[in-house]
Amino acid sequence: MSKFHLHTQQLVQGEFTARKVNIAFVFQVNCPGCFIYGIPIMNQLYESFKDKVGFIGVATAFEDFEYNNEANLKLLLESGELVGETKKYYQTNYQRSSYLDIPKFPAAFDRMITAESFINSGTIQLLLNTVPNISSFSEREKELLIMKIKSYYSQISFLAETFTLNQLQGTPSFIIFDNKYEILAQYFGHQSEDVLKMKLEEMLD
Q: Which of 25, 45, 49, 205 is least surrounded by Cβ atoms within 10 Å, i.e. has the fewest?
């Protein structure tokens, strides 16, 4: 089992303590799909499982940093205010610029760090562990891969630690994990509420 590496700034809303079963919802403020397909499902799951399951929303940023930031997360949580492409979508399709299904679950912004701070032996090893069949690589192949990783991240000014360490495919992403942060299940993109609900129930049993 792989570990879920959760590194956020201070919680903007609610409290989070790891329980036997937990679910993290990783999204971007400037991601219409996260609002259409992700937040409503998380709100429903939170209402059904909040007494048994730990919930944490992680707003992240791997693009459009002028929109995907902690300030806009706070606006969303406080008043449902939308920004960027998400705002355009709701203005075009619903003639409104605010979001009615405001997240009810605890939420924080991903920890943003410099590439210089990120690149060290510990994080390099974590990234190597995500490579399929890494154990079959020769030492020379591993050295070349490490050089590529360092070269790639050295070109980036800031990066989101949770998103990067877990090598997530994009947003929305759902990660179910236990109190030792072992990943029990992971999903990317539009997911059925029933699938997530059944998985939570299975893990609780």
A: 205
